[in-house]
Amino acid sequence: MKFATFRHGGREQAGLVDADKGRIVPLKATDMVDLISRFKEIAPTSSSVGASLDLDLVKLLAPIPRPRRNIFCVGKNYRDHAKEFASSGYEAGAIKGAEIDDHPAVFSKPANCVVGPGATVETHPGVTAAVDYEGELAVVIGSHGRNIKRSDAKGYIWGYTIINDVTARDRQKDHRQWYLGKALDTFCPMGPWITTADEVDAENLQLQTWVNSELRQDANTRDLIFDIPGLIETISAGLALVPGDIIATGTPAGVGLGFNPPKFLKPGDTVTISISGLGTLSNPFG
């Protein structure tokens, strides 16, 4: 099943999506996190609060428009991207031949930079001159857990969505850390919806990113260095995960800084990310 957050008639609500028919059914849940937390109780297929609506007549928002906590992000989790990043000059302390870490690099992205499909991403002139894209598969946690074993990790996953981990590379480089370069307003497009885990083979998803009409990223999630169960085990060690938590699993090679010269984004560009079975997330930059 696919679930989205949408606005219609001045009201924001969660809905069950039929992507093939282009329809969405409003649900009783207060919001997406409420739906995730009470998924079995709410029984989405029988808890609609109105007739289905044409997707073209509603405004899709980020599936979780206001995450309750910062988004967990994983850096350099595809081998080719780790190499392009290390050789780009934008990674402080990069050592040739030691691009692959022994443990995942985990950081966070503030919840208030989330925007939905079609929302304009600010390029922040005067703050940065090196705005970059990062198409990523994101995991949505469905139940509370701490010290989760990798063998049990899949049972804590509610679904998957798409995230663009937009990054100001110059701020990332100048401050010798990642947070400030990834925390600017609007720097986390998410969507178009969440697809439940039972419908997704997360170990074999094709991820593609276009800038305007140019294909920049084309990779498969089987190439992740640290797989999703391992990431959940690592992140949950001593830190409880809760329903609605989001883990962005990393981006493959083909980001703007990997080109010579770099191909950073400018106002008027549109970034489109597609992941097989999960849909397409597209956002203009302005």
UniProtKB/TrEMBL annotation:
GO MF annotation terms: acetylpyruvate hydrolase activity; isomerase activity; metal ion binding
A Pfam family assignment: FAA_hydrolase
Keyword Membrane in annotation: no
Stretches assigned to the Rv2993c-like N-terminal domain: 1-63
Domain of life: Bacteria
UniProt record, GO biological process: carboxylic acid metabolic process
Keyword field: Metal-binding
InterPro entries, per database record: Fumarylacetoacetase-like_C, Fumarylacetoacetase_C_sf, Rv2993c-like_N
Segments forming domain Fumarylacetoacetase-like C-terminal: 71-284
Statement: the UniProt record of this protein carries the keyword Plastid: no
Family classification: Belongs to the FAH family.
Protein name (record): 2-keto-4-pentenoate hydratase/2-oxohepta-3-ene-1,7-dioic acid hydratase (Catechol pathway)
Lineage summary: Bacteria, Pseudomonadati, Pseudomonadota, Alphaproteobacteria, Hyphomicrobiales
